[in-house]
Amino acid sequence: MINKQYILGLLTVLLFASCSNDEKVVFINADEDGGTGSPNPITQTLKEKAKFKVGAAVKMKDLQGEANYKNAVIKHYNQITAEFEMKMASIWSSSTAYNFTAADYLVGFAKDNNMKVHGHTLVWYDSFPEWFKNAKYDSIAFESKVKIYITDVVGRYKGRVKSWDVVNEVFADGGALRNETVIKPIFNDPIGFYGRCFKYAKAADPEAKLFYNDYSVVLDGGKRAAIKKMVTRFKANGIPIDGVGDQFHYATDTNRQTMKTGFTDMASTGLLIHISELDIKVNTAKSDSYVFTDAEAQKQAETYKYITTMYEELPQTQKFAISTWGVTDKYTWLTGFWHSKEYPLLLDADYNKKPAYQGFLDGLK
């Protein structure tokens, strides 16, 4: 009998030989061996192996519009984050009306499939609706409106959305308060305002876990110091913050020692740690001629393994979840934001498990 692995190996060779520079690698054997060199085939899903929640950012239109997408979410993950549908601009349609259609759908989908929901995000400078910004509220009216919004939204999903990013991306690179035009110009003490937002969320759902979320937390020492200073202030003043999310939009060439040092420093807060928007870029030079080769897939797999291994070193009491920012390369936000030739996630455009999937698994205990 001809050896099955021999045939699969031959097919792989033929496949690579036929690839032009404009074609991507297809992982034809991904369900058996993710390609990281691991002696163990992929026999478990992410949610089966991890002892913490493994989440993904999802969109209602993709869950409703494509069965393969929906099935992949159900198969691999046990927590979801709304990519857009729970942001203020999506829900707060006017001063007198909310639109909960999409958010309700996602919360219902999670319930039907025994998943948790992480709410993203209550207060973010970039998601205030235009009607709100155009109203030109003073600080008192501004905060009164935001308090009502937080109370209504968190209260609506009390007991169903188990955690929230209460505040998102307050600090600029380097650690100064972000010089945005929505919140900072109105409040003499923006950090005090953000702290009160945590209190409003806690009052609406005392059992929900409440997070601050930002990007480049483990790489940017100045930003991390500012976050830690804010956390210290919150704790000293009884502000109910439970955790910090680092988005982890990183790349195969991200310095691992810097990542590890920053991660350890952030964990020193003692708070829950959420890797909240994980994806790993491979086309780091933004090259139009980039080809996602087997060697590139291996580098990506090793990066995912490094991150999950690092996360597993946290005390169990600080492990909240690792969430990928998307499900499949087919719909990654990075093809619009970064480069059209980008493949940052665990499943390829055809929903095959990439070597990155095995890398993620290999880092888990």
From TrEMBL:
One of its GO terms (molecular function) is endo-1,4-beta-xylanase activity. Its EC number is 3.2.1.8. Gene3D superfamilies: Glycosidases (3.20.20.80). Residues 40-363 form the GH10 domain. GO terms for biological process: xylan catabolic process. Keywords: Carbohydrate metabolism, Glycosidase, Hydrolase, Polysaccharide degradation, Signal, Xylan degradation. It catalyses: Endohydrolysis of (1->4)-beta-D-xylosidic linkages in xylans. The keyword Signal applies. The active site is at E277. Pfam families: Glyco_hydro_10. PANTHER family: BETA-XYLANASE (PTHR31490:SF88), GLYCOSYL HYDROLASE (PTHR31490). Belongs to the glycosyl hydrolase 10 (cellulase F) family. This is Beta-xylanase. The lineage of its organism: Bacteria, Pseudomonadati, Bacteroidota, Flavobacteriia, Flavobacteriales.
